[in-house]
Design brief:
The complex is a heterodimer of chains A (about 200) and B (about 220).
Chain A lengths: L1 H26 L6 H23 L3 H33 L4 H23 L10 H18 L2 H19 L4 H31 L1
Helix pairs in contact in A: 2-3, 2-7, 4-5, 5-6, 5-7, 6-7
Chain B lengths: L1 H37 L4 H23 L7 H29 L5 H22 L11 H18 L2 H19 L4 H30 L5
Classes of the chains: A mainly alpha (about 200), B mainly alpha (about 220).
């Protein structure tokens, strides 16, 4: 009997969560985290060509300081912006299931990227991790496009095409990946932010 | 007198509202129950994929370490992929027919389908372009990564047993990278069981739900 009640309650919670996610999606209440993605986009646009120059000019002593600096800026910006967004959500009394799902997807993908880069797995033909990171961003944006809104899916497809193009032009590979991945972060983030603002103004 | 009439009218409206609200909730509930009932975990495909990994990867390890048998690696994987693709197409086709027959196309199963489609497309292109060829110069690690992502995201969206399988595959990649001599054996066992065990659990849960489902209640 107790077990049955528990199962019923679980089902009820799942139903409510599902309804909530549908409502979240239709009412456009989810903040897309545009500031983090724009920051990452700009860092990628700058970081990929720098990583390539370090590699071809064999400036090995600059490698780790530059990577750590870029990673440090990105992580600090992400933590600060995420904390602010979480506070805003709590203040509004809304904990969105969809934004939690998107957050978990990013967490898993980024944890993989960091781990494989540190361990030196999945090196590309150039000997770096540019392709791995572009692939991780491509998959993440595609998933955001499927779960949240279509502009991100376009970003994911652009990165996918960028990877194929970069494969055939090895000497420009990291420049292509940097520009495509960077713009695929920045442009959908701006569109998503504009849509979010529009929704907020309409619902005010 | 007029006040009493107004009160009665207001009460009637509230009563009507409540009925409408209850009906709405009942309707939503039925749609949700139907959605939950209809999502079929695609167990057959995952069990077949699991068996392919479970046998294919350890055999690959053996073939690669035996110079005179190395040439058989590629033909073996072509046959295994053809079997996997045939079962995948057949499984997808029959589940779509079943969904259409029940008059309901679930948003969640559509999303999961799209995610797998994108991941498999990415994996195929990267394997074809020979990106990320590590260890033995073979894309097994890449496919482990793709499978790990797919199972993790299915776990986030659908049910947790898939997420555990995804995490197990990431740990297996790590172990395989360190213990290179048994890399394919480790990947094969973990990828295989990572597909089969959650598929059996999901199928059992689905069957249980189907058994307990009473239309209209």
């Amino acid at each position: 009997m107790n077990q049955e009640n528990k199962t019923e309650q679980k089902e009820l919670v799942e139903n409510l969560q599902f309804m909530r996610s549908v409502i979240d999606k239709t009412s456009g209440k989810i903040d897309p985290g545009w500031a983090i993605i724009i920051t990452w986009g700009l860092i990628i646009m700058f970081g990929f060509p720098v990583a390539y120059l370090i590699k071809i000019h064999q400036l090995d002593r600059w490698k780790w300081p530059v990577y750590l600096l870029l990673l440090g800026i990105s992580i600090c910006a992400s933590i600060y912006i995420s904390a602010k967004a979480a506070m805003r959500e709590r203040k509004a009394g809304l904990i969105s299931k969809l934004s939690k799902q998107i957050y978990l997807v990013w967490l898993i993908l980024l944890a993989n990227g960091v781990l494989w880069s540190c361990l030196g797995l999945f090196k590309d033909n150039i000997g770096g991790f540019g392709f791995l990171w572009a692939a991780i961003y491509g998959i993440a944006f595609s998933m955001m496009g499927i779960l949240y809104s279509k502009e991100w899916l376009c970003g994911g497809i652009a990165i996918f095409i960028g990877i194929i193009a970069a494969c055939f032009t090895e000497s420009y590979a990291y420049y292509i990946l940097g520009i495509v991945t960077g713009l695929s972060c920045v442009i959908p983030a701006i569109i998503a932010r504009r849509n979010f603002h529009k929704h907020e103004q309409e619902n005010a | 007198m007029e006040n009493e009439d107004t009160k009665e009218a207001v009460n009637k409206i509230h009563l009507n509202d409540k009925t409408v609200l209850t009906d709405d909730i009942k309707f939503m509930r039925s749609v949700i129950e139907k959605t939950y009932r209809v999502i079929e975990p695609g167990s057959l495909l995952f069990i077949v994929l699991g068996l392919i990994f479970l046998t294919g990867l350890p055999v690959t390890q053996y073939l690669l370490t035996t110079p005179q048998l190395k040439v058989f690696t590629q033909p073996m994987w072509i046959i295994l992929w053809v079997i996997g693709a045939a079962v995948g197409i057949f499984g997808g086709f029959t589940s779509e027919i079943r969904e259409k027959k029940s008059g309901h196309i679930s948003q969640l199963s559509n999303q999961i389908g799209f995610i797998w489609y994108i991941l498999l497309l990415n994996g195929t292109i990267w394997a074809g372009l020979e990106l990320f060829n590590i260890s033995f110069g073979n894309p097994a690690f890449l496919w482990a990564l793709i499978l790990g992502f797919g199972l993790s995201v299915t776990g986030i969206l659908s049910s947790k047993e898939w997420l555990f399988a995804g995490v197990a595959i990431f740990i297996a990649i790590l172990a395989a990278a360190i213990i290179e001599h048994y890399a394919y054996v480790i990947l094969g066992i973990v990828m295989g069981l990572g597909c089969i065990i959650p598929a059996i659990i999901a199928k059992r849960n689905y069957n249980k739900m189907e058994k307990n489902y009473e239309p209209g209640k």
